[in-house]
Amino acid sequence: MTLTLRPATEADLMAVGALHHRSRAAAYSSFLPPEALATPTPEAMGRYWVERWGWERTDHRAIVAERDGRLVGFSYLGPDDAGEPDTGLLNAIHLEPDERGRGTGRALMVDALAAMRARGWSRAVLWVLRENEAARRFYERGGWTATGEEREDRIGPVLVPQLRYARPNEC
């Protein structure tokens, strides 16, 4: 059972969207109502990734994780949305639900941090849903700490609070 990380291609993006939908449903179902997780559909999530990649491919990086040729996760990173020049933003790590605890998330995080260092970003940040305790524990084990900054975003029709996490990104 070999795990491989590789750059995403445009041909991967519809499958990335469907995986993103499954990952969100599994991770968020304990604290978000079903109507929040029903939309967007897996197809709409795929179209979202196709469109987003079309706009951001020059300064963002998408990596897919495959286990024995099956797409099992992805990461997405780019410059910090607050515009800090030495800071990279880890926009996403999403996994198939059956990949949790198998090292895939950790491999994607380590790879993302290395890519940020290669771009000269000495600090890394991310946003995580406040209620997503499993993700918060995952990032905290990886050396991330909450900054105290909060924001709200929508998942479907539901407004959800997010927390900003940061970590130094040195060798």
Q: Do you know the CATH architecture of the domain at 3-121?
A: 3-Layer(aba) Sandwich
* Global structural class: alpha+beta
* Average pLDDT metric: 95
For the biggest sheet, the summary is: 7 strands, mixed
- Termini distance? 29 Å
The beta-strand count equals 7
Say what the CATH topology of the domain at 3-121 is: Aminopeptidase
SS element count, helices? 5
**Spatial extent as radius of gyration:** 15 Å
Share of β-strand residues: 35-45%
Order of helices and strands: EHHHEEEHEHEE
Instruction: Sum up the overall morphology in one term.
Output: globular
Name the strands of the widest sheet in spatial order: 1-2-3-4-5-7-6
Taking pLDDT < 50 over at least 5 consecutive residues as the criterion, the unreliable ranges are: none
Overall helicity? 25-40%
- Look at the structure and give the CATH class of the domain at 3-121: Alpha Beta
Walk me through the structure.
- The protein is of the alpha+beta class.
- The protein has a domain at 3-121: Gcn5-related N-acetyltransferase (GNAT) (Aminopeptidase).
- It has helices at residues 13-28, 34-38, 42-56, 104-118, 133-141, and strands at 3-7, 61-67, 70-79, 87-95, 123-129, 145-155, 158-168.
- Helix 1 crosses helix 3 (42-56).
- The longest helix has 16 residues, at 13-28.
